[in-house]
Amino acid sequence: MAVTRRAAIRSLVAAAAGITTGAGVYGYAIERHRIHVTRVSLPVSGLPRAFAGFRVGFLTDVHLGPFFSQDDVARAADLIVAERPDVVALGGDYVNWRDRAAIEPCAEALGGLSAPHGVFAVLGNHDDERATTAAFERRRIEVLRDERTRLVVGGETLELAGLRYWTRRVPAIARLLRGVAAPVLLIAHDPRRLAEASALDVGAVLAGHTHGGQVVLPIAGAIAAREFPVVSGLARRENTSMFVSRGVGTVVVPFRLNCPPEVAIVTLERQGTL
Q1: What are the residue ranges in the chain where pLDDT is below 50?
Q2: Can you give the residue range of the structural domain that contains 130?
């Protein structure tokens, strides 16, 4: 019988805690709260010269709830703002299990985000589409639900597109991209969309969803996230680059091991200049 991601995380946490009580306490009480700022360069095929060095603040997988508070979310948002990115992208899963009571507090905590080219979001599998979209847009966070917008710098254009979590097939994504005349930066909650993005020659993708595995064991690695083509960090498939963030929250159990939470500053670079 196949082991689900949720069951794998539970088993790994139990095993890690069993190896040493100290590691268990550290993963629960310390590591999951130490939010890192990750700085990474992302090559984008066909990126206009004016966008070389363009900085995207990327925050994903907040999971506001009993173990990640409104103050925690605000602290993550403050880390992004302090970096002064050109645009902010949010990668989905803002609450747990579509908890409607948590949506407004999360939106309020994220409402302080700002950037010269705006703040944009996609939704994840934990998010209530209607309620989350309404709460975000009251804070001037634009939710891209199989939609795209244009970013313009120095007279040159980059298309920023966002996928619904359940939009997965090439024909559906192709409809979103129909008529694009500029390179595309795609926000997709699930990194498994790398295959479809590559098939459509998308320049680059930002994704989350994996939490980096939450528990990363020596040698074995992130067992709970093996179903994904990329667990965290950079990847490439043909002409399409991808960055996958570990996110800031947790799911199933409030525990991280060898997998600290992160917000990311993603600097776009022209392909071949790295």
Answers
A1: 20-21, 23, 25-30, 273-274
A2: 5-270
Q: Please check whether residue 63 is in contact with residue 95, taking contact to mean a CB–CB distance below 8 angstroms.
A: yes
Which among 78, 86, 29, 124 is positioned nearest to 266, based on CA atoms? 86
Cross-strand pairs, 156? 153
Q: What is the DSSP letter of 58?
A: E
Contact criterion met (CB below 8 Å) for 189 and 125 = yes
**CATH number of the domain that 168 lies in?**
3.60.21.10
pTM for the model: 0.86
pLDDT at position 217 is 77
The confidence score (pLDDT) of residue 272 equals 63
Task: Please count the CA atoms within 13 angstroms of the CA of 165 that sit on its side-chain side.
Answer: 13
Provide the number of structural domains found in the chain.
1
| Residues 6 or more apart whose Cβ sits within 8 Å of residue 105 | 64, 70, 73
pLDDT score recorded for residue 271: 81
21/139 Cα distance (integer angstroms)? 43
Catalogue the E-assigned strands of the chain. Answer: 36-44, 55-59, 87-90, 119-121, 142-143, 147-153, 156-162, 184-187, 204-207, 233-237, 240-244, 262-270
What confidence score (pLDDT) does residue 219 get?
A: 66
Distance CA 182, CA 31 (A): 41
pLDDT of residue 214: 79
CB atoms within 10 A of CB 203: 23
